[in-house]
Amino acid sequence: IVDHAGHRHLGYSPLFTKRPRFSNALMQNIGGGNTMVMNKAAWQLLIEASKDVKVVSHDWWAYIVVTGGGGVVIYDPRPSLKYRQHEQNLVGRNSGWRARLMRVRMLLQGQYREWNDRHIAALKKNNHVLSAQNRRVLELFIKARQASLFQRIYLFVKAGFHRQTFLGNLGLFVSVILKKV
Asked: Which of 140, 137, 130, 135 is nearest to 71 (CA)?
């Protein structure tokens, strides 16, 4: 990550170590669109699944669709480009205490639940692109979001929903308890 002029080094994007999969893609995006490389099958899957949908971000949608369709996502830990950071970035650098506090505020305000509503609506329109296993994961996600507290926790654990970091999973657990996911 570099400053707006592209000169000063500001750090690195988070290094995620858990295997990219649909149960993670529903909970968070781990790749920026400017860093993605895909084969023809993934590209065609995205074209098919992106007609008339309203999603949070194109890169997150790509992660959801490719993993949902049974595609393999490889998360390369080696930095290969400079990500220019400026004050007007809508998402931008996603690390540090300021970013964490902003995510907590968004969680409590229901932003993540709204985003999940959008993704669910888009996935329902495109259920045919999901693998049978991931159709079941999506069904568990929908059911869990409406369930009572203990049933909700059970279903989230059963389906293997997770984020990539300890703090992320702690936040996910809180959002499950508060019914904000």
From this structure: 130
Q: Which residues contact 147 (CB under 8 A, 6 or more apart)?
A: 155
Q: Left if phi > 0, otherwise alpha if psi is -120 to 50, otherwise beta: which for 180? A: alpha
Output phi, psi for 148, to 5 deg.
-65, 165
What is d(CA 16, CA 9) in angstroms, rounded to the nearest whole number? 20
Helix axes 40-49, 58-68, angle to 10 degrees: 110
Backbone angles phi, psi at 61, to 5 degrees: -60, -40
pLDDT, residue 114, reads 93
Tokens of residue 82, six digits: 């400079």
Band the pLDDT of 90: cuts 50, 70, 90: very low
122 with 62: CB under 8 angstroms? Answer: no
User: Structure tokens of 10?
Assistant: 């500001």
Question: Strand ranges (DSSP E) for the chain?
Answer: none
| CB-CB contact of 146 with 137 (8 Å) | no
Q: Is the pLDDT of residue 93 over 60?
A: no
**CA–CA separation, 114 and 121 (whole Å):** 11
How far is the C-alpha of 19 from the C-alpha of 124, rounded, in Å? 25
